[in-house]
Amino acid sequence: MPVTVLLVDDEPLVRAGLRAVLEAQPDIEVVGEAADGAAVIPLVRRLRPDVVAMDVRMPLLDGIEATRALLRTVDDPPRILVVTTFENDEYVYEALRAGADGFLLKRARPAEIVHAVRLIAEGESLLFPASVRQLAAEYGDTGGNRAARAVLERAQLTERESEVLRLMARGLSNAEIAARLVVGTETVKSHVSAVLAKLGARDRTQAVIAAYESGFVAPG
């Protein structure tokens, strides 16, 4: 089965470019397009895409509010890939906080766009550690978010789970974490799953944001 994608961007040329790149792949199918976030929920309910590639800045309903609404109202929601013009953008950080699974720059090469969609569809998070650290440092309420601190305190992570979360925040993959800790990849997967469950995080992105917001990990 191909990975199905919904494109959401107010610029027709951007949507056309993304469609051309993605539909050149035999395992990816663009099933619909929208010019504003307000159209996302009805289209998702009708088309059931695996991935929504969504701009953050749109005139009626931006990608942040569209992400929040989608995750709040749709059962078994699709994965959300933010596609943005500017890397160091408060909108991007807010979209990640809202529940987006990762972000990609519009100027990315075709191969990077295809890789991002496949990765997101597989349930992974698309994190650029340096960029997320910079965004968290500039726009995040690092250490000052009481709700995030309370979540970390209630989670009562074990010493090993805490170590895994810190390595996740640095952007290490499961295989890289396994190599660093000298354990098996399956063991790391179990630790990651435990961390996500204890934090109530949808994915690695949300866990990392919680780590920064709570002050558990310093973004600097």
Structural description of this entry:
- The N and C termini lie far apart (42 Å).
- The chain folds into two domains: 1-125, 3-Layer(aba) Sandwich (Rossmann fold), CATH 3.40.50.2300; 142-212, Winged helix-like DNA-binding domain superfamily/Winged helix DNA-binding domain (Arc Repressor Mutant, subunit A, Orthogonal Bundle), CATH 1.10.10.10.
- The chain has a five-stranded parallel beta sheet with strand order 2-1-3-4-5, with helices on both faces.
- The chain has 220 residues and is of the alpha/beta class.
- It is globular.
- Helix 7 packs across helix 11 and helix 8 packs across helix 11 (204-214).
- It has helices at 12-23, 40-47, 63-73, 90-98, 110-121, 129-139, 146-155, 159-169, 174-181, 185-199, 204-214; strands spanning 3-8, 28-34, 51-55, 79-84, 102-105.
Cα-atom Rg, whole angstroms? 17 Å
User: What is the end-to-end distance?
Assistant: 42 Å
- Name of the CATH class of the largest domain: Alpha Beta
Report on the biggest sheet.
5 strands, parallel
- The CATH topology of the largest domain corresponds to Rossmann fold
Percent in strands: 5-15%
Low-confidence segments, ≥5 residues, pLDDT <50?
A: none
Structural class: alpha/beta
Helix residue percentage: 40-55%
User: What's the rounded overall pLDDT mean?
Assistant: 87
Number of helices: 11
Q: Tally of extended strands?
A: 5
GO molecular function: DNA binding
Modified residues (4-aspartylphosphate): 55
Organism: Streptomyces paradoxus
Domain HTH luxR-type: 150-215
